[in-house]
Amino acid sequence: MRKNFPDRKNRVTVRVPGTSANCGPGFDCLGLATTIYNYLDLTLIRSDKVVVEASGEGAEKIPRGRKNLAWQAVKKLLEVTGHNEFKGAIIRMKNHVPLSRGLGSSSTAIVAGLTAANEIVGSPLNRDELLKLATELEGHPDNVAPAIFGNFTVSVMDGGEVQTFSFRPRIKLKLVVAVPEFELSTRLARKVLPKKVSRADAIFNISRASMLVAALVEGREELLPLAFDDAIHQPYRKKLVPGMTEVFDAARKAGALGAAISGAGSCLIAFTSAKRGHEDEIAAAMVEAFKAHGVESKALILNVDTRGAQVMHK
Ligand code: HSE
């Protein structure tokens, strides 16, 4: 351990993007980072005390003290890197990502805690190593990978190990997200899924997920209308998101290339491009279609974040 370590600055602020997992057919493996951000200011302290302050989206629901997810991530990073001189932390969270809506809010907390603690202790871990820890904490890689790397990500689990390919799409995607007022727990949204899928449904998804990645890598926008559909999770989650199919149809009718549940929901996300446009019309159509099913929602128009988790240098 460095002798002069106690003199280091023990405080840092990080910014982490909200994410959208699955992107339709890429269940548990595709994800993208969006331009909506959570901020976390971390001070590591030597006393055995954890203080959490939160403001913004869902602030009242965020656990304070040792149950806080960002603290769990900080603790993990300190354990793995052997920095047991720090026993506690002061954590200030400023959140813009809606909570429990399928925009990766829990991943932002995990990635922010890991990134901030890693920075304070001198960056012993690289982004691949942070991804490994984040995946262990989150249970699956499809939100934490884009939160760390930004852009569009393809993640593969091999045993317990994760490997991610992150790339910047050659199409300037525009994301229209309808955020309903109700929350949906990932646990419930996973419980409704069948344990097995048919070969036909597997082929349906493999072909579309492959087409989606190929079209984004090569900039072939004309192939995208085929590429956002899914047969292995959305049909089962439909009952948890009133109006899902109608909101998808409304988005397409208003000009979207396709639409999907964002992560495990409850948000629905439609995709268009800067060239194609119609973001405002798509947003209005989605909100209206939700309303027709008794669901109030607000729309966000976002871009793909290209940077991932960032340490904010003043
Ligand atoms: N791939 C996961 C799911 C995302 O759809 O259940 C949850 O954040």
Please describe the topology of this protein.
Blueprint: E1 11-21, E2 30-45, E3 50-56, H1 69-81, E4 88-95, H2 105-120, H3 127-138, H4 144-149, E5 152-158, E6 161-167, E7 173-180, H5 186-191, H6 199-218, H7 234-237, H8 244-253, E8 258-261, E9 268-273, H9 279-292, E10 297-303, E11 310-311
Parallel strand pairs: 3-4
Antiparallel strand pairs: 1-2, 1-11, 2-4, 2-5, 5-6, 7-9, 7-10, 8-9
The structure holds L-homoserine.
The site of L-homoserine has 13 residues, from helix 5.
Describe the structure.
With 314 residues, this protein is an alpha+beta fold. The protein has two domains: 2-168 and 305-313, 2-Layer Sandwich (Ribosomal Protein S5, domain 2); 173-302, GHMP kinase, C-terminal domain (Alpha-Beta Plaits, 2-Layer Sandwich). Helices cover 32% and strands 26% of the residues. The protein contains nine helices and eleven strands. The strands form two sheets. Strands 1, 2, 3, 4, 5, 6 and 11 form a seven-stranded mixed sheet that branches. Strands 8-9-7-10 form a four-stranded antiparallel sheet, with helices on one face. Strand 3 (50-56), helix 1 and strand 4 form a beta-alpha-beta unit. The longest helix is centred in the middle third of the chain and has 20 residues, at 199-218. The radius of gyration is 20 Å and the shape is globular. It starts with 10 loop residues before the first strand and ends with a strand.
